[in-house]
Amino acid sequence: MKTPSKLLAAAAAALCLLAQPVQAERLKDLASVAGVRQNQLMGYGLVIGLDGTGDQTTQTPFTVQTVMSMLQQMGITLPAANTLQLKNVAAVMVTTSLPAFAQPGQLMDVTVSSMGNAKSLRGGTLLMTPLKGADGQVYGMAQGNVLVGGVGAQSGGTSVVVNHLSVGRISGGATVERAVANSLGEGNQIKLELNTTDFSTASRVVEAINDKFGAGIAYALDGRVIRVQAPSSSDQRVSFIGTLENLQVNPAQMAAKVIMNARTGSVVMNQAVALETCAISHGNLTVSVSTDAQVSQPGPLSGGQTVVTQNANIDIKKDGGKVMLVKGGAQLADVVKALNAIGATPQDLLAILQAMKAAGSLRAELEII
Questions:
Q1: d(Cα 186, Cα 193) in Å, to the nearest integer?
Q2: What tens digit of pLDDT does each residue of 273-291 get?
Q3: Which residues on neighbouring strands pair with residue 125, listed in sequence order?
Q4: Phi-psi domain of 214 (left: phi exceeds 0; alpha: psi -120 through 50; beta: other)
Q5: 313 close to 292: Cβ distance less than 8 angstroms
Q6: Number of Cβ atoms within 10 Å of the Cβ of 98
Q7: Contact at 8 Å (CB) between 82 and 88?
Q8: Alpha-carbon torsion 324, 329, 330, 332, what sign?
Q9: Are 289 and 279 within 8 A, CB to CB?
Q10: Where is pLDDT greater, at 325 or 368?
Q11: Whole-prediction pTM value?
Q12: Fewer Cβ neighbours under 10 Å: the N or C end of the chain?
């Protein structure tokens, strides 16, 4: 298992990749077509045939009620005072996502999760379960043998590896019963929705589409939605969208952001993060960041230009003694590397980053997860 200091080192080492220029991305990776989406489905059902690992009926009365209701629908009447002792039955929730443009008769994978106190769903069979959408309509029916993975013997057969046994999966275990109406085929316009709102990226997408298909084909409604004129024929529209999705676009640089996991010490930042001059004291650690300018003038009559370079001096001291001096651009990566070199804990780094943000010297959004 990696220690927090090693995690910090790995995060700091990965920062060298951030200096690379932004690469062009496919439009399908930056945006989605409005209306082309999945719809979540959910259903309540029973898994039977368990090997004594089902719900304990004294603590899960809803399992008994469900079984009695099912038997009554089949014409089997049980005495009201009869108490069923069910060890091979478990009440479960069945979830899946209905893909876009799915038609009746197509198959879907489903996830089966115990909602009672069943010890295991391994070897069980899911009875026919209606899958409903948010509107309460049934869009699919699920049934089949539940597969629970992660159960097997280690090398030598001396021990058993047991995974999470209360959740299983049925591959192709649900059949689509109803299609979802889609507005993609209406009119001669489609809308592209960017995954992240960004006015610069939206304008670049519009420019790339118009350069490819002609002026006036696309225009932005706001920082996320772009309206595009598409062919009226469904066949031509599908071909047009396929070409559109593979269009190469250079996205705008993201806003400066630092994300830190307070539990593991992982730190991720983008290339827009910068520091201002600051001095911080935390426990036995002292961090000082200062920036000075170096002016390089060309020789007389050389025709060159004066270049001003901003250099940073980052001093980190522990118990009053200097530990490391980093010179270069004022980058947060240098601070992370230096703190890692003296064995700073994730809590130390978190406190220092929060102090830098509060003082206004960290020019980025700090998000702690």
A1: 17
A2: 777 777 777 666 676 766 6
A3: 48, 145
A4: left
A5: yes
A6: 22
A7: no
A8: negative
A9: yes
A10: 368
A11: 0.70
A12: N
